[in-house]
Amino acid sequence: MSRLKRDIRGKKLRKFLARADDESFLQLIWAVDALQTDRVPVAKNFIDFPPAAATSDLSVPYAMHAWELETLANELLVVPKIGVSAGRNRFVNCSQFGAAVAAINFLRGQEDAEAGLFLRRYPVLTELHRIGQRIFPWQRGYFNTPQFYRSAFIYGQGRCAEYFRETTGVSCDEFSLIGFGLRAYLQSNALLQNFSMQEVGISPNTMQAALSLLCLSVEEAKTKASLLRQTIGDRHRRLPIAYQPSILRQFPIVSFGSGNGRLRCPLPELILLRVTTGLYYDLVGGGGDLRNEASRRFEEYCHKLLSAMLPKLEVSRSHQYKVQSNLVESPDLFISKEGAVALVLECKATKLTFGAQFANDPIGEASAGYDELAKGIFQIWRYFSHARRGVVAVDISSEVAGVILTHDTWLVLSRELQEDLLERANALANKDPEILANDRRKVVFCAVQELEGLLMVSDEQRFLGAIAVVTEDRFVGWQLPNVHREIGNDLKEIKPYPFDPEEVLPTWKKLSAMRGSEVKAAT
């Protein structure tokens, strides 16, 4: 692929979007998403489509992926308009499924051209890492109980919750309920006007405070979307179109008309992302104390999850011990079998940066984050060294392994990134001559989202068995759940998630009364 082809294909997409009315095109995206997520009756009211397009089967020719629709919505907001009168769609007929087909084909053409250029200079595994970061979260989805519970447990209690309420005028609990209500309404309605949740105790002022966090006017959305691309660093400005930042992740709703006139949400699922893990946007300005508290609560959540899902194993927290006259903190978690430590885990709540997900050189762009993960490996190795030398009194299994458990999906489909982490960890360990080669055991990398799903199809023996084989060379770069499945370990019946959101989100009791069946299905 040549740069000329890339530029020609990019120009075709921009020209197409420049001739589309913003509000109508966002409605088209909403309708296509409805059409292909089993909401065909509501889509019929807004677009004409061939019968074969009415399917959630992503293998059919008409399939359009949610991540592609998100890219189109963001491109729409940054492309200047030409020849389109205000409020009218003179050139692109957004009531036709064919308009979405044309836009998707232009987008895919540009993506193909850019991928061809990228692969001339970078290894294919770097591209696989970025592809995984783009599509895996959408495939997992955001409408699930673990997502709500985990986010509320980590961000929605203590000082984090106080800071959120003080700075936004709405509680985390209320924000979660509002997000769930908005998403439920927008699943069936393309337009949001005069929306109220007073019947479940949400006052108009609280609703307005929540909407100020979720919604931008179309003019503001255009400005912020353009600024977002300019402020993520010069090296990112030439990123392929597929990996450009999304303003909809922070503000999933776009308003048209004066005030909160006509509210459009092209992809309602993003509302759930915003009111769960997206709480980070509101807490990031709170300083180191909030980040430290979130890290402590992440460790507590991991301990609670592992204890509940693996009851036949002993899961214990960190402890301090003396090395000469100095107190040393152990790794965060330990899993023991029959009195001997089988797994040593280090929990890392380090936030996944944009550069770590999508930069041409993620290692260079997010070096500080990868250094933190490498430090976790070093801390595990140091503990193994101390245990071997009797510095800390602990019975270690001969097959003990280390696990880096991350809050975000730092390592996706990339042997290269894992090898870089091990090099960094070895550089740290080389400074301590007491850390020998046999202390530097292979370490498993797992994101908490992956762990949650894995534990629902595993038990104690199966889980430890997957940990044992994932460190083999043939599985380097694999995700732990995929290894578990590959070796035939998955249980036939899925175990339930062990926690009820009502424990950390009291308003879910109201939600259960109002929409009980839907809440219980969100697992």
Tell me the layout of helices and strands.
Layout: H1 3-18, H2 22-35, H3 40-43, H4 66-78, H5 97-121, H6 124-140, H7 145-155, H8 158-168, H9 172-188, H10 204-214, E1 215-217, H11 218-231, E2 253-256, E3 262-264, H12 269-275, H13 280-283, H14 288-309, E4 314-317, E5 320-323, E6 326-329, E7 333-337, E8 340-348, H15 354-358, H16 362-365, H17 367-389, E9 396-406, H18 415-429, E10 443-447, H19 448-455, H20 460-470, H21 480-486, H22 508-521
Parallel strand pairs: 1-2, 8-9, 9-10
Antiparallel strand pairs: 2-3, 4-7, 5-6, 7-8
Helix pairs in contact: 1-5, 2-4, 7-14, 9-12, 17-18, 20-21
Cα(first) to Cα(last) distance is 43 Å
CATH architecture of the largest domain: 3-Layer(aba) Sandwich
- Report strand %: 5-15%
Percent range of helical residues: 40-55%
Structural class category: alpha/beta
Specify the CATH class of the largest domain: Alpha Beta
Q: What does the average pLDDT come to?
A: 89
Number of strands: 10
Task: Give a structural overview.
It is a single chain. Strand 2 (253-256) and strand 3 (262-264) form a beta hairpin. This protein has 22 helices and ten strands. Helix content is 52%, strand content 10%. The longest helix has 25 residues, at 97-121. It folds into three domains: 1-140, no CATH class; 142-286, no CATH class; 288-498, Restriction Endonuclease. The strands form three sheets. A five-stranded mixed β-sheet has the order 4-7-8-9-10, with helices on both faces. The protein is globular, with a radius of gyration of 24 Å.
